[in-house]
Write a structure and sequence with these properties.
The chain is mainly α and 346 residues long. The protein is built from twelve helices and two strands; from the N terminus they run E-H-E-H-H-H-H-H-H-H-H-H-H-H. Helix 2 runs antiparallel to helix 9. The longest helix is centred in the C-terminal third of the chain and has 34 residues.
Length: 346
């Protein structure tokens, strides 16, 4: 080695990261030649020993293997694959969003906005369909009828779904990874079927039964009053319409509602209540989510049951980190209600 030639100083010391954090693997070498005036003498990308210095030159500042590591590139380049520290969750993987309080607040605002947009889209869609079928002048009486026409019920549901699904997609895209499956836990496994069915049946026949049992002594007609929302949704329709609405209620409603309430709202509350620590943070999170779920149905008499079952679904989502068990439980819960109403109507 000639005088003035800078030799390799060796790799830098491993950066000190907080407990539970780790650095992703070093990316593959970039394309193109090394910096001007340097000749390849080994890998020259970040993490390698660096290029060979020409005589009389100092090593390029910041190249790993030649002294202090270079600072992390801008956030735009980090997202393109540059190494950056990531916080690990309890299972050792990368922590799912929302990762900050600001992200959590944004998710809650998006959920609220999606709910309002869904209500507006529902009303506009009902008016549009009513005009198309020539029932616009009777729309007030049809909406308040004990058994509304099937097109009205379907229009209301589809309008709500527009807002709910839109909020979930925006939350994942703007304050997450962009993957609804990864960010919101939208996955279904075979084990979710028996677990969800059992939880749904227990919720319908045990949880609600015990919850309202003391009040049935005060109001003997309570059971009929509690079933009115389900009757409004499914009763009185001819066979084909009943089949369509029942399928939507059992197969689509649980997925859409779980996406919003357990996918977006619950995860936002979990992040907001994390500083509370211990068992109290999760308890507050699932309770707040259950309360929001119950209030969103605008059913005062059924509020206690909806909140209680919403808490059960929130516990399932929190414990499993997935929406699959809750979706099956929600579907089973709705199916038993639809079957009970259909049986009583016929």
């Amino acid at each position: 080695m000639t005088a003035g030639t800078a030799g390799p100083a060796g790799p830098p010391e491993e950066p000190q990261l907080p407990p539970g954090w780790s650095l992703p693997p070093v990316p593959p070498p970039p394309s193109g030649p090394p910096p001007g005036g340097w000749t390849p003498g080994g890998p020259w990308w970040p993490g390698g020993p660096g290029p060979v210095a020409p005589s009389g030159s100092a090593p390029p500042g910041g190249w790993w293997g030649w002294g202090p590591p270079a600072p992390l590139p801008p956030e735009s380049q980090q997202r393109a694959g540059w190494p950056r520290p990531v916080r690990a969750d309890r299972s050792g993987g990368e922590e799912p969003p929302p990762r900050t309080v600001r992200d959590a607040v944004s998710w809650l605002l998006l959920a609220a906005g999606g709910f309002l947009v869904g209500q507006l889209a529902s009303a506009l869609l009902v008016l549009a369909v009513a005009a198309a079928v020539g029932q616009l002048q009777r729309i007030d009486s049809l909406v308040s009828a004990a058994t509304p026409p099937g097109w009205l019920t379907v229009s209301e549901l589809v309008g709500l779904w527009i807002g709910f699904v839109g909020a979930a997609l925006l939350a994942s895209k703007r304050r997450g990874s962009g993957s609804v499956v990864r960010d919101l836990g939208l996955s279904l496994r075979w084990v979710d079927l028996p677990v969800g069915v059992v939880v749904g049946l227990l919720g319908q026949f045990v949880l609600l039964g015990l919850l309202y049992l003391p009040f049935e002594y005060l109001d003997p007609n309570l059971s009929n009053e509690l079933s009115q929302p389900a009757e409004h949704l499914t009763a009185g329709f001819p066979g084909a319409q009943l089949a369509v609405i029942a399928a939507l209620t059992v197969l689509v409603v649980p997925v859409v509602e779980e996406l919003l309430f357990r996918g977006v709202v619950l995860r936002a509350f979990v992040r907001l209540f994390r500083p509370v620590g211990g068992w109290l943070g999760p308890v507050l999170s699932v309770t707040a989510t259950g309360l929001v779920f119950g209030l969103a149905h605008f059913e005062l008499l059924q509020l206690a049951g909806l909140v209680a079952f919403g808490i059960v679904l929130s516990v399932l989502a929190y414990r499993t980190k997935r929406l699959g068990p809750g979706i099956v439980a929600h579907a089973t819960f709705n199916l038993t209600a639809v079957l009970a109403v259909a049986a009583s109507a016929h």
